[in-house]
Design goal:
Rossmann fold, 4-stranded parallel sheet, alpha/beta, 8-stranded mixed sheet, 2 domains
Length: about 350
């Protein structure tokens, strides 16, 4: 008899692990054993071990906690790992794990949109789907090429591409640039694609051993009639309010309002500052539009181009680069690889 793969479930908290208090409000409370007990079919798919890492909503997770989680995953002697957490930051935490882990086993992140007190909660189904993906032969053979995977609503997504695109719907997750890597049908995992991962792999090599102190990165979302006065206030403050880098979610293919240019350029002169598309991802322009507020002038002024990375993922990569002590030239090189 063929042995089942050994899958280790690490529970962090989130909607998938909530239960109602005396007022009916949902609170963190369920642990890994509770999640497993709710899905009897798991034991037919794999040998399951379950461990509660924390009972924290993903909105309150920290970079340090995800670094510690990555170290824990590296220490496990198993055939695959499933992480359960909240959806609020899943697009960020899964990408950070992808930057930190260089493994030959599947690492799957999943969550829930509907809490266990609602009709048809999706947590049990997502957990079963995540374990099926982790145990699937094609996924296991291609684990290194696939990297960390997010599994939600019977679809599997590359961590570098997955986004939360709706605050409450069941189908809240998508990879708008690339689509899913695989889908689940009946009890099968149906492969669709392998992700383009050269930029992630190159970044991971440079980030190996990124174990320094947290390096706060500011996120500025550019909008209509914005002169970016908050940037000037931050630069005038003692120790720049603690920030060591910044990401600017820019308009269009990499533009900011003309009235904001002075503050944007000053920020880039003071700290590594990455420009990423506020539209949510997709390679930006590099040499199309003239003027002080467009891509040609901004790149010449020292802004780092974030390629196809969503601003949230650009912030994750920049923080990790700074934590690893990389110099500016290397940071530019890593971001440039994302297009």
């Amino acid at each position: 008899m063929t042995s089942k793969p050994r899958i280790h479930i690490l529970a962090l908290g989130g909607t998938i692990a909530t239960r109602p208090d005396s007022s009916g409000a949902m609170q963190m409370g369920l642990g890994a054993d509770d999640l497993v007990a709710a899905v009897p079919l798991l034991k037919e798919v794999a040998e399951i071990a379950a461990e509660t890492v924390s009972r924290v909503g993903s909105h309150s997770l920290s970079f340090d906690q995800i670094h510690a989680l990555a170290a824990k995953i590296r220490s496990l002697q198993v055939d695959g790992v499933v992480v359960t957490q909240g959806t609020d930051t899943l697009e960020e935490t899964s990408f950070l794990l992808d930057l930190l882990l260089d493994l030959e086993i599947p690492v799957i992140v999943t969550a829930a949109m509907r809490n266990p007190a609602l009709t048809s909660p999706d947590g049990p189904g997502n957990l079963l789907a995540a374990v099926r993906v982790a145990a699937d032969p094609w996924v296991r053979r291609n684990a290194a090429a696939l990297g960390v995977i997010a599994v939600m609503l019977d679809e599997a997504y590359a961590a570098s591409d997955v986004l939360k695109v709706h605050p409450t719907r069941l189908n809240a997750f998508a990879s708008t640039q690339t689509g899913p890597l695989a889908v689940l049908v009946e009890d099968r995992v149906v492969p669709l694609a392998l992700p383009v991962r050269e930029a992630v792999v190159a970044a991971r090599r440079k980030l190996a051993g990124a174990s320094g102190k947290a390096q706060p990165v500011a996120l500025f979302w550019m909008s209509l009639d914005d002169e970016a006065a908050l940037m000037a206030m931050m630069l005038a403050a003692s120790d720049r309010l603690g920030y060591r880098g910044a990401v600017i979610a820019a308009m269009g293919g990499g533009h900011v309002p003309e009235r904001a240019v002075e503050n944007v350029v000053r920020l880039a002169q003071a700290m590594p500052t990455v420009v990423s598309p506020r539209a949510g991802g997709g390679p930006m322009l590099r040499k199309t539009y003239g003027g002080p507020n467009a891509e040609i002038a901004l790149r010449e002024a020292g802004l780092i181009w974030g390629g196809r990375l969503h601003p949230l993922k650009a912030r994750v990569l920049l923080e990790t680069c700074l934590r690893a002590g990389l110099d500016r030239a290397t940071i530019v090189e890593l971001f440039d690889a994302f297009g």
